[in-house]
Amino acid sequence: MMILKRIGIVIVLLAIFSGAGLFLFRGTLLRHVVKGKIETYSDRYGLRIAYASLKMPSLATVRVEGVSVVPLHRDTLLKLRSAEVELELLPLLQGNLSVKSMHTDGLTCRFVKCGGKSNYDLFFQRIPQEPRGQETEDVVPIGYARRVEQALGALFRLLPEDATLRHTTFMGERDSLQTVFMIPDLVLEDRKFVSEIAVSEEKMNGKWRVAGTLDCKTRLIEGSIASAESGKRIVVPYILPHYQTFVAFDSVAFSMKQEPFSAGNQTLTGYTEVGGLEIHHKALSPDTIGLDKGEVEYMVHVGERAFELDSATTVRFNRLSFHPFVRADKTDRWHFTASVHRPSFPAQDLFASLPSALFSHLRGLEVEGELSYDLNADVDFNCLDSLKFSSNLRGHGFRIHRMGTTDLSRMSTEFEYTAYEHDTPVRTFAIGPSNPHFRPLSCISPLLQMAVMQSEDGSFYYHDGFYPGAIQEALAYDLQKGGFARGGSSITMQLIKNVFLNRHKNIARKLEEALIVWLIESQHLTSKERMYEVYLNIIEWGPLVYGAAEASRFYFEKEPSELTVSEAIFLASIIPRPKHFRSVFNPDATLRENQLGYYRVIARRLAVKGLMTEEEAEAFVPDVQIRGESRRLVLQPDTLISPVHATAWEAE
Questions:
Q1: pLDDT score for 255
Q2: Where are the alpha helices (DSSP H) in 322-433?
Q3: Angle 233-236-237 from CA coordinates, rounded to 5°
Q4: Where are the beta strands (DSSP E) in 52-161?
Q5: What mean pLDDT, rounded, does the chain reach?
Q6: What is the mean pLDDT of residues 330-358?
Q7: How far apart are CA 587 and CA 144, in angstroms?
Q8: Does residue 482 register a pLDDT over 80?
Q9: Average pLDDT over residues 134-150
Q10: Distance CA 630, CA 634 (A)
């Protein structure tokens, strides 16, 4: 028993002397550890890290002065006059860093980019992997859920619940343009923070007020940003001069809460709300896009190999709200699934919520009844051919009470159509009897009507403006090509694009196009026959050649009612690239052999529709003899295509 007591005394004395030694030499030990870390990061990232003074006033307090971080051959990235950090003692003894309080003075961060080089490249460098030993080869990679849990866990441990940041400046410099955020004082006390931020960029100056809560124990961050100047709005700096995008808002509020990690799943909940948002970019709209109020209450699940936006999420957009579901799974490549199911709601809520700058033709539209909507999408980048997409808007007692800025029924009677070339109007002509080149369907060969329909949209008379199969194929093809390579548009969609909209390919225009198509088709504002008649009279068929009558004359010097099978199929074949019609001919103006397959396919379809016999279709050999101006342009390939023929026709 006496021996055990003596051993216990020795252990206690060793602990006391070790603790005393640790306390007495804590500064030396700290500097030794920091020196090693500095050398590691300097070698790995190419940095010069220096400090003037490093002390430990107490066992859990670190004070540093005169810090600088300079990437090699770059501008200074960071300067810090002084900082004092108090750490949680118990976690520190267990080998974990947890910040209790922090006080800084004179922190300046400069992010400089000039001529393609920047002083922050190190943030995007790939860290070299350490060579793995045999014993680690079978280690299972950490999944997304655990990564998020570890990252947020570290963040909440390192963020203090009490802090004072004085004279803090963040500067961004790019190609001589300087953006500065100055924070005189930011005080975080009792989990609450508040501060003003002075923002300057060229002639723009503003003051922002930020406030919020940081609760590290419950792992909650929430805050708000608004202008600190009465009557002023926040204009987002940097993106206007560099990306020609104007963004302004009245206020933004946000929150994010990390739920407890459970069964390999990490859940994040929160909300984001923006008021008085305005965006302007010419690729979106020539006018400023306004959003009175937008809000998202979200629930995100992060799994080991997947991210999921739960259908409990609510998106509010002015007067409209819905619950989207989105899931992204990663195997070899990403697999996305998404759905929206919106039961019946007042139809006017939809049209009153649309930003007028994006949906200018629907501005002021008044409707009655209700709408419901369903969307389902399945996009597997491992096999894009399996892509599935459906979008279904349904009306319930729906009708248009009053047209908005645009009369969507204008195609039902004679109207003026303007053709554009690269956003420049080139011709304006009437679509009706007053135009000598207008031809009603009865004066256009059924062969041409059917050949064009079978080439462009075989089910035009049977669908409601959208051809789901073509849309799916176009989406898959566009994703494979990484851009707008194929449209998947029905004849109705092509018609709406040309008669009502501009030709810019962007999401906003496609959405407005889809809504106008749905309105015209569902409300029968224009009959199918009249739409097809308009289509055949405005479609471009060559250099300033519009409509079936001009096309028949330009290529064959005859009326569209007199066309042969070969001539009708030829005109249908060049619709996708009318200005490149010369590419389908040999130098002697005979049809290229690589065109024969297309002609035979369309001929068989004409036989199915009863416009020729099956025997005629099987024995069909195309005979295309172009004449006049078109033949001259093919025989003289160096001849510039001119609008002389159009001027002459209009003079007749």
A1: 95
A2: 347-353
A3: 125
A4: 53-58, 61-71, 78-87, 99-114, 117-118
A5: 84
A6: 90
A7: 61
A8: no
A9: 70
A10: 6
Closest CA relative to residue 513, chosen from 324, 405, 358: 358
Using one digit for the tens of pLDDT, what is the confidence trace for 494-534? 899 889 886 565 666 778 888 999 999 999 999 999 999 99
More confident residue, 572 or 40: 572
Buried b (16+ CB within 10 A) or exposed e, 625-639: ebeebbbebbeeeee
> Which residues on adjacent β-strands are paired with residue 83?
64, 104
> Cα-atom radius of gyration of the chain, to the nearest Å?
35
Distance CA 183, CA 51 (A): 23
The mean per-residue pLDDT over the stretch 236-249 comes to 89
What is the largest distance, in Å, between two alpha-carbon atoms of the chain?
127
State the distance between the two ends of the chain, measured CA to CA, in whole angstroms.
Answer: 126
Phi, psi of 399 (to 5 degrees): -160, 155
Nearest to 347 by CA among 295, 292, 294, 401: 401
Contact assessment for residue 491 and residue 453, using Cβ atoms and an 8 Å cutoff = yes
Give the H/E segment covering residue 275: strand 266-280
Q: Is the dihedral of CA 610, 597, 559, 500 positive or negative?
A: positive
Comparing 68-77, 92-101, 349-358, which segment has the lowest mean pLDDT?
92-101
The residues near 360 (Cβ < 8 Å, ≥ 6 apart) are: 285, 287, 405, 406, 512
**597's tokens:** 């397959």
Give dist(CA 245, CA 237) in Å, integer. Answer: 10
Distance of CA 503 to the CA centre of its chain: 19
- Residue 53's φ and ψ, nearest 5 degrees, are -150, 140
Across 535-549, average pLDDT? 94
Beta pairing, strands 366-380 & 78-87 = unpaired
405-410-415-420 Cα dihedral, nearest 10 degrees = 60
pLDDT, tens digit (0-9, with 9 covering 90-100), for 248-287? 999 999 999 999 988 889 999 999 999 988 888 877 777 7
Alpha-carbon separation of residue 294 from 53, 103, 287, 290, 354 (angstroms): 49, 36, 19, 11, 12
